[in-house]
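Title: Prediction job returns without error message
Component: structure pipeline
Severity: low
Priority: P3
Assignee: unassigned

Description:
Job completed but the reporter wants confirmation the result is attached to the right record. Sequence as submitted:
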Amino acid sequence: MEEAVTRSIRSTKRPRLLTLGMALALAVPVSLVVTSCAAEDPLAQQAAAGDGKNYIAGDGSVTEYAEADRGEPVEVSGDLFDGTSVSSAAWDGQVTVLNFWYASCAPCREEAPSLVALHDEFAPQGAAFYGVNIRDERATAEAFERSFGIPYGSFDDKDGGVLLDMTQYVPPQAVPTTIVLDREGRVSARILGLADRSTLKALIDDALAE
C-alpha cells in the first residue's frame, strides 16, 4: 500500500493525496486523509455491503493536480433550478467550485454551512460557486437551499448530464464531491466526500493565487 507523499504540487507529475502533516496544519481530522489500494476502496466496500444507505460516502480524501498535468478545461453546461442556462465557457478567468449533492444525503447537509461561509468569503475575490444536484425535484432542492441559506444556484442534473461530463473526477455515486477549477477551467483539486472547511479554503486559496 502506498503512503501519502510530501505536498509539492508544483513538481509532482501525478495527482496525489494531501499528507498527514498538511492535514494537521489545516486542522483536518486524521481519519479523513486516506490512501488505499484498490482492494480496500471504500466506495467499492460500501457498494458491496448492500446496507441500504441512500448514498455512498467518499473517504474524505483530497487530490490536488499539478498545473502541468491538469489537461484540458472541463466542458459542462446545463440549467439551474431557477431556469438559468449556465455553461463552463463563461467561467474563463475565474476560480470555480462545483459541489455535487442532494437533499437527503447526510454529509451534504453537514457540509452545507461551510460551503455557504466559503462562498461569502471568496465570492468578493471572484470565485464562483455552483451546486450540482443529481437527484432532487426542484421543490426538494429549493427547500434544502432555503433551510441552509445557500446563496448560489444549483444545476438540475437529474438527467446526469453534468455528472457525465465530470465522470473522470466524480464517481457516479460518491456524493458529496467537491471540485475546484482553476482560472482556465481545469480541475485543480477534488475532495471526495464531506468537504472540510479549512481544507477547501486552502484549495481555493491556492487556485486564486496561481
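Comment from assignee: result matches the submitted record. The longest strand covers residues 96-101.
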